[in-house]
Amino acid sequence: MGECEFMGTCPFFNNKTSPMPANAEELKNNYCKTNNLHCALYMIASSLGAEKFPLDVLPTEKDKAYAIIAQG
User: Fold this and answer.
1) What is the pTM of this model?
2) Which of 10, 12, 29, 31 has CA atoms 20 to 30 A from the CA of 64?
């Protein structure tokens, strides 16, 4: 755990997710900077590669991550 290795390319961390939630900074602290293993975007990037980052998934949306990973 710790800082996410994908922070440089992650659309959520770089404010490219649409829409960005009001608590984005709190989520970044909880997921990107502290506990990346529980992040939906980390799950996608570590399974499929950072080039597969979606622009509409938040760190808390694991169900979306599972569906994206299942589709490959």
Assistant:
1) 0.92
2) 29
